[in-house]
Amino acid sequence: MVGLYLVGLGLAMMIHTGLGVPPWDVLTQGLQHQTGLSFGIAATIISAIVLLIWIPIKQKPGLGTLINAISIGPFADLSKPLMPELDGLFLNIVWLCLGLACVALGSGLYISANLGGGPRDGLMVGLTRVSGWPFWIVRSLGEGTVLLTGWLLGGTVGIGTALFAVGIGYMLQITMKLFGFDPKKTQNGVKASK
Predict the structure, then answer these.
(1) What distance in Å separates the CA atoms of residue 104 and residue 107, rounded to the nearest whole number?
(2) CA–CA gap between residue 14 and residue 114 (Å, rounded)
(3) What tens digit of pLDDT does each residue of 136-154 get?
(4) For residues 54 and 181, what is the distance between their CA atoms, to the nearest angstrom?
């Protein structure tokens, strides 16, 4: 839960700067822009839709999957009032980078609990399995589709989106190692038994 809260806090920090958010959160902002819903409610609706897509591709959620789906967006909403006033581009970029680091730290902690992948990640894994395509193609097409859709709906694309795209993988590798999680020693997202 601490990891999931840190992800929500990091997203709130990134949103606060107005400099761009991760691709799935661009889609969430687009839905928010079109409906007037809070970010948290829009994120939860998208998570629910993604989990419904898991049914035909026979992807199985874990407890962590379900908790992720209902908590990260509301945690971002709860963190919104904690955001300070930031004057100038430099302070906004620093805050954006701190938000990205917070997302990576929280994600590393959450993933290391090994209670099931997040809805969006599980969707990409399931689509890879069903399609037989390489994961990088499925992930790139998926992220590109939600990014474009979110942008067309009014979501914020910017330097934060680019920093997330190029930095999150490396940062997650560091935080997962920090919390003792080695993805090479897992099978289908669950730690392999000896």
Answers:
(1) 5
(2) 26
(3) 888 889 989 999 999 999 9
(4) 25
